[in-house]
Design goal:
Strand content: under 5%
Structural class: mainly alpha
Helix content: 55-70%
Distance between the termini: 69 Å
Shape: elongated
Order of helices and strands: HHHHHHHHHH
Largest sheet: none
Number of strands: 0
């Protein structure tokens, strides 16, 4: 059985009196997060409101701290949207013991939070890539810039790339190349990288980018 940092084991997840004492004494904050999640789930929302609220607030704050440690400030809105998304999903999971995340949080809390955070980062990357594609298409037909030849050439290139990317079946490979075009590093310890967003190794992400580049070159040669 897991112990807190003073060697005292947490109460059994269904021991309401034990959790009442731990909340009253304040020692519950030193118990493993897995034990607190298990208590919230097993005691249920109809248990002592004061106890459940205290445990739930502690778990919420712990999730928030853990998520923030794994979301860089280089994302739009300094990553706040990603943090909110991951935090919200995990809080829902705490209250849904039968869900995969609900089970994961009571078995390996930090690992599950990190997994869901990485998933939220990937989803944000996909969403931004789609929005970027739409914006590029809109800008290409902006009559105010019809006389800007430099812009026209740039947009022709973008449209060509997007046309080629539409032939790539794997959405992750399309995203890898778009992030590459936006200057996101393949791998980095200081900021979010293409490998982080896609949840793969930098070697795999690099291989995907090379595949798309090869297709671009092949189609360009066919059209020349």
């Amino acid at each position: 059985m897991a112990l807190n940092n003073e060697g005292e084991p947490p109460p059994h997840p269904t021991d309401l009196e034990g959790w009442r004492r731990s909340v009253r004494d304040g020692c519950f904050v030193r118990y493993p997060a897995e034990a607190v999640v298990a208590a919230i789930q097993d005691l249920g929302p109809t248990a002592d409101t004061e106890v459940i609220n205290a445990l739930a607030l502690h778990v919420s704050e712990t999730i928030l701290r853990t998520v923030r440690r794994h979301v860089g400030k280089n994302h739009p809105n300094q990553g706040a949207d990603i943090v909110d998304d991951a935090h919200g999903q995990l809080i829902q999971a705490v209250l849904c013991p039968s869900s995969a995340d609900g089970k994961g949080l009571r078995e390996a809390f930090v690992a599950r939070v990190r997994f869901r955070t990485a998933d939220a980062i990937r989803e944000d990357g996909l969403r931004r890539a789609r929005e970027c594609s739409v914006e590029n298409l809109d800008a290409a037909f902006d009559p105010k810039r019809a006389d800007d030849m430099s812009h026209a050439r740039e947009m022709d290139g973008r449209l060509f790339v997007e046309e080629v990317l539409s032939r790539v079946a794997d959405e992750r490979k399309r995203l890898a190349f778009r992030l590459h075009m936006d200057g996101i590093p393949l791998d980095s310890k200081r900021t979010t990288s293409i490998a982080d967003v896609l949840g793969v190794s930098s070697k795999t992400a690099g291989h995907w980018i090379e595949e798309v580049q090869a297709q671009l070159k092949h189609i360009a040669e066919e059209q020349s």
